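User: structure tokens for this one?
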Amino acid sequence: MKRSDIYHSDPEILGGTPVFVGTRVPIQTLLDYLKKDKRIADLRDDFPTVSEEQAEALLELAARDLLAVA
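Assistant:
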């Protein structure tokens, strides 16, 4: 999945906050769920517009970017 299929930032949507493509759900929401020991399924229950594929791809992308810096 390409980055552009996972998330984007548009000044017209939540003031440019990065959100999952096709939604108004901020990326930060997934991170907050994970910090509270919740699962992707919990996020999807509350925000069904975010696909499981998008959420998993975002985490893979974040891990890959972090490891590339290390």
